[in-house]
């Protein structure tokens, strides 16, 4: 295994997983593997605290990038990305679950669909955190002077898992102890989960490490916790019914104190693509990453892996990047989203792969699958025939994360960027906008836009523009023609700015909900199905096994 500078936690996690491999069913989350390993097999006096706390992070990575994980739950249902059924028969299995996700027709019992396995990963993540805290409390783990800091770190990771519950499902159990095997924790309201997360972060964030690199790489440090708290306040009106815009601003200002211009470490780097490079571990824009390595991602590996390049590229692109296997010709851009970009916006080409495709030696590639495009030049186009019968070259592909030549094991080396400094700018800007300070918001948004335009004048946006309607042409799509729904979106231009800056970062659903678009507007082949779709249903297996009532609007 390759050891790289500043990847301490990446390999600490891998080492712990190697000792603690476990398989957790959706309804049986009481494996004692971690307790047994710690108690019987490891001399804890010689372990670095990062190794001891490492198991708190495993399920974060699993929830995000295990098959049908959080990325798809937040993107494939949005106005940004679609997984269409190809005429070649690909991506139409699981009862057409991928297309049902786009159309918001998921059900609690649907065999496919992105929300099903997430619950189990979050529950296991909470369990792992509680086991660590229990061992620390019992004195079984020798952390010395770092005890209080490690306790705060694990509690903030536990808060992150509950934040994800709150965002995806709304209601969830709040579990702070290791329960007996037969115990079923009561399910709490969304506001109760929100209040718990805010309380845990408020109490523990200041106790965390200030460090952002080395042993703190990918760990829940002070700045990651504050960013999560700002995210809670940004969505407070959705989560709790009460807006907290000023609190969002205040917490963002706390993180701004650690910017380069204030003598700290965070900055908006000059190259928009820098946070997404294969070797992105030293990027000064990253606040919290999820560690991946190309050696940890075989298809049957017990760990989740970053497979985006395989999910989006055409099989012929194997020759473009000398990949170890053929890609699957799946997720691609919704044309209406692509059409919303200013053509001068550098983020368009830095995010999406378009046009004629070539091999690594420069030869033109051709359509190799069996449909009417077979043998024709492989040139990705911003057009779809139909969501249930698209051709193999239709749709721009996701290229935001650098695709290294020679990628193997269907896993990329890139570490997934979960929070980055641009989000601090944009959260504060949105909060300012919503509190009547549009011009102040525009200064921050313009700063984020600077690296996206060669012409400085094009980068500048005004407060009046941010208060205006979206430029996205919402409405139903039919072979390149959109029938507009002619709705006005309050602060729609701000929503556009979030889309262009954070496209393909696994967050679009949350933004659409906050701006009132997710269940109200039409796009591509999606029509509104009711406001209850702002939440996913509790997986049927979970609700039945635990006696939990189903989320409003859904029937088990």
Binned, the helix content reads 25-40%
In angstroms, what is the radius of gyration? 23 Å
Strand percent estimate = 5-15%
Main β-sheet: number of strands, strand sense, barrel status? 3 strands, mixed
Mean pLDDT: 88
Give structural notes.
The chain is mostly helical and 556 residues long. 39% of the residues lie in helices and 6% in strands. It is built from 23 helices and 13 strands. It has helices at 8-19, 33-41, 49-52, 58-65, 70-75, 93-102, 118-138, 147-168, 190-204, 222-234, 236-240, 245-256, 308-312, 318-321, 335-339, 347-351, 421-434, 438-449, 456-459, 463-466, 492-502, 508-514, 540-546, and strands at residues 81-82, 172-173, 187-188, 286-290, 332-333, 352-353, 355-356, 379-380, 397-398, 416-420, 475-478, 481-484, 523-524. The chain starts with 7 loop residues before the first helix and ends in a 10-residue tail after the last helix.
Summarize the structure.
The chain has 556 residues and is mostly helical.
Primary descriptors:
globular; 6% strand; disordered N terminus; 556 residues; 23 helices; two-stranded antiparallel ribbon
Task: Give the arrangement of secondary structure elements.
Layout (H helix, E strand, L loop, with lengths): L7 H12 L13 H9 L7 H4 L5 H8 L4 H6 L5 E2 L10 H10 L15 H21 L8 H22 L3 E2 L13 E2 L1 H15 L17 H13 L1 H5 L4 H12 L29 E5 L17 H5 L5 H4 L10 E2 L1 H5 L7 H5 E2 L1 E2 L22 E2 L16 E2 L17 E5 H14 L3 H12 L6 H4 L3 H4 L8 E4 L2 E4 L7 H11 L5 H7 L8 E2 L15 H7 L10
Parallel strand pairs: 11-13
Antiparallel strand pairs: 1-5, 2-3, 4-10, 6-9, 7-8, 11-12
